[in-house]
Amino acid sequence: MLRLAASWxxxxxxxxxxxQFHLFFLKAxxxxxxxxxxxxxxxxxxxxxxxxxxxxxxxxxIVPSDAPAFDDLATWTGSVVRADDGTWRMFxxxxxxxxxxxxxxxxxxxxxDLVNWSTTGRALVAPDSRWxxxxxxxxxxxxxxxxxxxxxxxxxxxxxxLLTARANLGDPSSRGVVGTAWSADLETWRVEPPRSVVGxxxxxxxxxxxxxxxxxxxxxxxxxGSELSSERKAAGERGGIWAVxxxxxxxxxxxxxxxxxxxxxxxxxxxxxxxxxxxxxxxxRNTTLxxxxxxxxxxxxxxxxxxxxxxxxxxxxGLTPELSALGATAHG
Length: 332
Hints:
By secondary structure, the chain is mainly β. The chain has helices at 230-234, 314-317, 321-329, and strands spanning 7-16, 21-29, 43-49, 56-62, 74-82, 88-95, 104-111, 118-119, 145-152, 159-166, 176-183, 190-192, 206-213, 216-223, 240-246, 259-263, 266-273, 279-287, 293-297, 301-302, 304-306, 309-311. The chain has a single domain, classed as Tachylectin-2, Chain A. Strand 13 (206-213) and strand 14 (216-223) form a beta hairpin. It is globular and about 45 Å long. Residues 320-332 have low confidence and may be disordered.
């Protein structure tokens, strides 16, 4: 488990150099007292481990840039890949002071050793208004364009980025879609239409991750209960960590068929393979059952397929029998 005495920690992502697991995470000082203030003070921390359990914090990876810059207010969630030239590339979200933190953009940083990072200082991609909602549309509190998940394109050509995004049409409570962009070289990116359809029941799909777990493709994301569609709320559904089975990793992704893996006492589930090759899930501890904010990252728990669904142990998932039954039937 990662719990820092001086800072809250929440969204996170991994890189594996073969010897150590590198954990990158959002952090903000506990001296803020109110955890809701953390978003505008977030930096990207870094810890290392050999077993995914015992973590040693090292120097922070990335902090906000000097103004003016797309990330001069706070740095948010991302992912890490290894480029063809052997360097590591981190793609992360930035918000700026000029837009009051309400406009999200994606930038990148490079490293030879996963420890020392150099940022480019520029945003790489912005939502294309042909398909994606913009802040000026007024349908959502911010312009959602964040949490880049970068991976090699399944076609074998170039790289693909999945993003938390919103479509520019339909019920505002159900505009959450899988945004996407493509690049040949990790430098220049072309924004493309969403890989999911509007109206799938989510206001936004946070912290996407696409993996092939024991031979089956699955897309993981998170959504709070307060950000579910009006229809799902009316049906009594709750938020948490969600998964949707995927036939083709290139998409499209049928988000309407998503099922819940854990309730929102846990958030931002991340899949990673341990040294034995077994898939594990870590999440950050979001709130107590009474709603008190926690802000620490769990130990790994094993994942498995049960009746065609990705599952973790029920006592970890936090689902009561009633909620488990609800999650098993909703949009199944």
